[in-house]
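User: Can you help me understand a structure? I only have the sequence.
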Amino acid sequence: MYRRRRRTREIPFSFDSFLDVVANVCGIIIRLILVAWVGARTYHTLAAQRAAETPAGPPPAAEHASPEPTAVSDPLALELQRQRRELEQHEQRLLDQLRQYQLLQSGNAGLGTQLDDLTAAQRTLEQQQGRLESTSVEQTTAARTAQVSLADLRRRSEQLAGELRELEKLPPAKVLRYRTPVSRPVHTEEFHFECREGRVSYIDLQAFLVEIHRGMPDKVELLKSRWEVESVTGVAGAFRLRYTLERERGVLDGGAGPGREQSFRYGLSGWVVEPVLPTRGETAEVALRPGSQFRRLADALDPEQTVVTFWVYPDSFALYRQLRDYLHEHNVEVAGRPLPPGMPIASSRDGSASRGQ
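Assistant: Let's start by predicting it. Here is the structure, written out as C-alpha cells:
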C-alpha cells in the first residue's frame, strides 16, 4: 500500500522583529530631531539676548580673539553637532536596514515563486505517480487475464484435439439425398407409425381392419334396426381401434327409418386410434439400431408397393426427420401427417388422403 510522505514545511519568514527595530530607530530619530529643534531655538534666543547686552564696540582684545575657541567653548553648539552626527549615523543605519528589507522582500518573493513552482512540480509528480500505479495495476491484471486466457486456450485446444481423434474413429458420414418436395396421394398399402414424446410406435391398422371385417356379420344385424354401430377392436401392440359402421341412405328410404326388411349398403365411416399404454415405442437411437421393431418392419418393406405414414406430434419432428432420412436411403416413400397436441389419430370417410414423397 503506497504511503504518501508528508511535505516538510519550512518555518515562514517573519518581519515582526525587523519592524520593531525600524520603529524603535524611527522613534529615536524623531526624538533627536525634536531635541535638536528645541536646542536650536534656545540657542538663537540666548544669542539674541547676549547681543542686546553686549556694547556696540567690541573691546580690542575681542577683535583679536579667534571665533573657534568661542564655538568650541559653546556647549550647545557641541551638543548640536554631536546630535547631528548621531542623526546622520541613524539615517545611514536606517537606509542600510531599508536596503536589507528590500533585499529580503525580493528574496522572499523569489522564494515564494520557487515554492509555488516546487508545489506544482510535486503535484505533477504525484499525478504521474498515480497514473503509473494505475497503469501498473492494469498491466498486472492484463497479464493475469492473458495467462488465464492462454491456459483456457490450451485446455480448449486439447479438448478439440481429443474430439477430433474421436471423430476420426467414427465411420464415414452418409450422404443424404433428399427428394424433391413434390407429393402425391397415396393409393397403395400403408404402414402407420406414431411419433410422440420422442418415440416411434407401430400402429397395426391392417390387423384392426381384419378384425373389423370378421365381425361384420354381427354388426349387419344391428344395422337393420339403426343407422350406425360403434364398436372397439381388441388390443394390438400399444393401441386399439374405436370404429363406426354406418348404413348408407338410399333413394327408396325416404322418410322411413331402419327396421324395414330390405337390402342396404353399409361401410366403415371412421375410426380413432386409442393408446392403451402411456409409455410406448422406441427412441431414435433404439429404432435405428439393427433388430429393433422399426428396423424389422422398415427393412422388410417393398418400396414399389408400400408407403410409410408418420403421425407426428410437435415434440417429435426431429425423430420424424431421422426416420424419414433412413427410409429415403432405402427408396421408401414417406408421408408425414402433423398433429396438434392432444389430437388423436383418426380417419373418416370425408377425410383427406396421405400424400407421400
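Now, to help you interpret it: Residues 16-54+68-139 form one domain. The longest strand covers residues 266-275. Let me know which part you'd like to focus on.
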